[in-house]
Write a structure and sequence with these properties.
With about 425 residues, the chain is α+β, with helices and mostly antiparallel strands. The chain has helices spanning about 5-20, 40-45, 145-170, 180-200, 200-230, 255-285, 290-310, 315-325, 330-350, 355-370, 385-415, and strands at about 25-35, 60-65, 70-80, 85-95, 100-110, 120-130, 130-145, 235-240, 245. It contains 11 helices and 9 strands. The strands form 2 sheets. The chain has a 7-stranded antiparallel β-sheet, covered by helices on one side. Strand 8 (about 235-240) and strand 9 form a beta hairpin. This is Site-2 protease family protein.
Length: about 425
């Protein structure tokens, strides 16, 4: 890619990340409405947490009043860090039987109370002939549009499923967005979006497809780590142009779990890179030059992508691992400096120009500033990492870095 195309792609991604995760939006209300052909009282019994059909979706397991002032304890089917259902203490205000209620969350067993400081949700039911207009709204203070968009689609899905339940009496889990077919479609779309950046020819499409495959393999490693850590449900969401994200089935329980899941994205590919190098050498020896070149390109892209994910940026895998295994801010600063210096030195050895490496260093610094502190604080501190686990994760981080570093140098020598 030319310098202009590279700068455009990087600047576009940085701007999109800032828009999605950091830009301050203030107090915003997300509102969704739908007309459902059902009796208002029946829908009230489903939406009101104390209603006879409050468990229609399986989300609410039970709801019990705590006092006579509208405070209640709600048990949800979502798993907490210990595998038990999450319990939420909420206060109900302005309750109009059969037509309206407002709810504020005081605290729950998963997230720090500060997460709920500005949160309020309402439900309104208005008769409309033989149907009912149901309006759901959620108000909160947002930084970045990603969570706001997520809540909009989550509420829209809830109303659509409520409509199906009101008609059939059955609740249908899942949706089209996370369906495997849809995710494959998003992966294909991502490859086509990247294609012009690599050149609108067969070679450019091959590079776009290889990069998309590398992202999928990386997220597959995170998913495998989630399962090994006891998450009964884990899934991968492909986001065209931005890449993908693996999502666990419950909150993290320990610092070791955070480090293990973060490292396994690159760790999974670390097992594949030596295999790809050997396969490329074998194909070349047999005279299959195109296959050898494609395998070398795949090994190089996998190495470059995964080693870039190990840089000490706040939300990148390397930053997540270092924050868990470093015993204090001084050790974290030294380890971050060492890892970033090693990456830049590796890039210089692989043939990248000093100006490109300076730009890369600046981009990583900007990314770290953009994403710093963007995580959600848990209700209780994570279990501390043990000394042996700390050393084991540090050794694994160095090993994964070394494997991908070798793969990057080997691929650059083969393809130049």
């Amino acid at each position: 890619m030319s310098v202009i195309v590279t700068v455009t792609l990087v600047a576009g991604n940085l701007g999109l990340i800032f828009l999605l995760m950091t830009v301050p939006l203030g107090l915003r209300t997300v509102r969704v409405s739908r007309v459902i052909k059902a009796d208002r009282n029946r829908l009230w019994q489903a939406l009101w947490p104390f209603g006879d059909d409050a468990g229609w979706s399986g989300e609410i397991l039970s709801a019990e009043p705590v006092d006579g002032e509208g405070t209640a304890l709600i048990k949800l089917s979502w798993e907490g860090r210990d595998g038990s259902p999450i319990e939420r203490k909420a206060r109900f205000e302005d309750v109009r039987e059969g037509s309206y209620f407002s709810m504020r969350v005081i605290e729950d067993t998963a997230l720090d109370p500060s997460f709920w400081a500005n949160y309020c949700e309402t439900a309104e039911l208005v008769p409309k002939g033989d149907a009912t207009r149901v309006t759901l709204a959620q108000t909160d203070r947002y930084r970045g549009v990603a969570f706001l968009i997520f809540r909009f689609f989550a509420m829209r899905r809830e109303l659509r499923k409520l409509d199906v339940w009101a008609t059939t009496g059955e609740y249908r889990k899942g949706g089209w967005f996370e369906h495997p077919v849809s995710q494959v479609g998003f992966a294909v779309l991502s490859a086509f979006i990247l294609w012009p950046f690599f050149g609108l020819n067969l070679g450019g499409f091959a590079l776009a497809a290889i990069l998309t495959s590398v992202v999928a393999l990386h997220e597959l490693g995170h998913m495998a780590a989630f399962r090994l850590s006891g998450h009964r449900r884990a899934r991968m969401i492909f986001i065209p142009l931005l890449g993908g994200i693996a999502i666990g089935g419950r909150p993290y329980d320990s610092r070791f779990e955070v480090a293990f899941v973060a490292l396994m994205g690159a760790g999974f590919s670390a097992f594949l890179v030596p295999v790809l190098i050997a396969a490329s050498g074998f194909a070349g020896a047999e005279g299959h030059r195109l296959a050898a070149a494609l395998l070398a390109t795949l090994a190089g892209c996998a190495s470059l992508f995964n080693i870039a994910n190990l840089v000490p940026v706040w939300k990148f895998d390397g930053g997540q691992v270092l924050r868990q295994i470093c015993p204090g801010p001084i050790a974290l600063a030294m380890a971050s400096f060492f890892l970033l210096s090693a990456l830049l030195a590796l890039g210089w050895r692989a043939g990248f120009s000093p100006s490109f490496l300076l730009i890369a260093g600046a981009v990583f610094s900007i990314l770290s500033l953009i994403t710093m502190g963007s995580g959600v604080k848990p209700r209780h501190e994570l279990k501390p990492i043990q000394p042996f686990d700390r050393l084991a994760m540090a050794g694994a981080l160095l090993a994964v870095f070394a494997i991908h570093g070798y793969g990057m140098l080997w691929a650059s020598a083969q393809l130049m």
